[in-house]
Amino acid sequence: MLKFKTIKTIIIVLLFVTTAKAQLVNDLSWRNLIYKSSPTWYASDEAKAIAENVLLYQRDNGCWPKNILMHLPLSEKEKKELIASKSTLKDCTIDNGATSQEMIFLSKLYQQNPDERYKKAFLSGLNYLLEAQYENGGWPQFYPLKKGYSSHITYNDDAMINVLNLLKDIKLQNKPISIRPSDELLQKIEIAINKGIDCILKTQYLQNGIPTSWCAQHNEFTLLPEAARSFELASLSGGESAKIVLFLMAIENPSNKVITAVNNAVAWFEKTKITNLKEELIVDEKGKVIEKIMIPSQNEKPIWARFMELENNKPIFCDRDGIKKETIAEITLERRLGYAWYVNAPQKVLDIYEKWKLKNVIKKPNDETNLVVALDGSGDFTSIQEAIDQSRAFPYDRITIFIKNGIYKEKIKIHEWNTNITLLGESKEKTIITFDDYFNKMGLGRNSTFYTYTLLVQADDTVLKNLTIENSSGEIGQAVALSVTSNRVGVINCNLLGNQDTLYATGTGKQYYKDCYIEGTTDFIFGSATAFFENCQIHSKKDSYITAASTPKDTHFGYVFKNCKLTANEQIRKVYLGRPWRNYAKTVFLNCELGSHILPEGWHNWSKPEAEKTTFYAEYESRGEGANSKARVNWSYQLSKRDVKNYTIQNILGENESNKKWYEKL
Question: What positions does UniProt annotate as the active site of this protein (predicted)?
Answer without folding.
Answer: 523
